[in-house]
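Question (not urgent): is this output format expected?
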Amino acid sequence: MKKIIGISCLILFVVSIHAQECFMVPTETRYWDATNAYNGYTLFGTRGLSYLVDMEGHVVHKWLIGTNPRFTPGGTILDAVGGNPSNQNTWRELDWDGNIVWQYSETRSGYYPHHDFEKIFNPKLGDSTFIYIANKDLTSQQCLNAGCDPSHTYTGSQMDVIVEVDMQGNVIWEWSFFDHVVQDINPALPTYGIIANTPGKIDLNIQGNPVRSDWLHCNSLDYNEDLDLIVVNSVHGEFYVVDHGNTFIANQPANSIALAATSAGDFLYRFGDPAKYDKGDPPSVIENWEKATAGHKQIGGAHNIQWIKPGLPGAGNFLVFNNAENLFELTPQSYIVEINPYLNSAGVNTGIFVNPPDAGYVTVPSPNQNLMKENKKVSKQIVWTYSSKNNTTFYSTIGSSAQRLPNGNTMVCSMNDGHFFEIKPSDTSLVWEYINPVTRDGVKKIKVDNYPTYNGVFRAYRYAATHPALAGHDLTPGNTITASVPNYYIPSDLTFIKENEPEPLPQSILNQNYPNPFSGSTQIQFEISESKLIIIEICDFSGNKVKTLMSKTYPKGKYSLTWDGTNDSGTKVATGVYFYILTADNQRIAKKMIHFR
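Got this back:
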């Protein structure tokens, strides 16, 4: 006898088969709960190609570019050229057919773009612009003149800048971390100040981390058009909000850059590691040196900082993929973290940025002793967190992304294992899962044990069919990347067999239809062991009956029926997933098939 498992167990059953200690994992779509997942198309780039796949993993379209692609509001695809998110200086915008509609290259000496970029609408300019992160060279003398500790050397030092160019490729605004620094070792310099009283600037002499090449390693940014603000994330455990609108003057690039370098460009908000500005405890080894604490540090090695977009659940909050590097956890794992920056210590939404240390922290114990984690001080501004129950299941040391979807679910891309999945907000149960089959050694149906990023994907995005980049285009599903017929679990597959109670031998056999997928007609074969009434029905993915293909008594034997893709009225059904269901006596057998027009 079979029994259905409760939905809350899904993440234990399905995601745990991809735990990092596993050695062989089937790729492509592994699970789909169509009732609870947000139906759409997933875009990701890998090894120089960008793929758009449907929920079952069929390729709908692809482009000859594949580093960190995303669709623009204008209906194009935008990506860096070269395939390496950590090193890029040219970006292209392509149409559906792969034609270049816009291109820009950073050619200035001393600028080294990397990681993230975004096409935005600049309301003061009244036009689209393009922003990106770049390291900018600093001389040793510049560092010393600003107040860097003279006991260190600063050859090859760099700090990140955010550059904005118009659609003609002209630099129209630039914001630099180096213009917003503070130090407390040389009172004679204008950068001198009390670190704890200057949260709007970054300490030049952070303990153990002197200014050097790629000092902050910023890896993501986002723009909020309604607020005209930019948020930028550093891999070292903080993200920062800076004012774009009040430091930009339309058609005055030099004045805009100068204004951004003033106190008007200081951080409006920062989150992640208050010890970096003397407002909290740093991570440290505790009295029993076999244990450690994260102190007040909330994120580490994080990626993909973003505002949750208007109209989505949690709109206005920050969402970040917390890789959880350098958090001093005995058993590390990654997290998705949602932050409301306006909450005060009483949990009241003030409508203005509140410095996280002023909002305070709560001590959260480990939810399970087998996680082997110490109590954590968690910011009161964190309003939602996701992590897998098994801490070896979900962990990525690099890259990765998270996306809030219109139905409240969150889509996650874990870069290390090319692992995409979608979770519900309430019980964080799994509703969709996909493993990237494109590896360093070609396309694989099975992923075996390999070093991290063997099939890595920097980010992945889910889009509805109504998105401007998809609307009006042919979304007919083609083959999967591996050219295999999709073979994934659905909720009713999550069953167990009662011990000591063997399954009865089947009295009826229903074979997989052929061809599958199909566009014209398909053959359905079945076999019965004795004469009986056979009913074969076609249902759509929601369980609605489409057609009664057969209802009559057959003698013992093997039989074949043809379905031509029409409903009971003779009308061709839409492209999609269907089930054919054989009912005989008290037995009911169902199989999936894919029809496309």
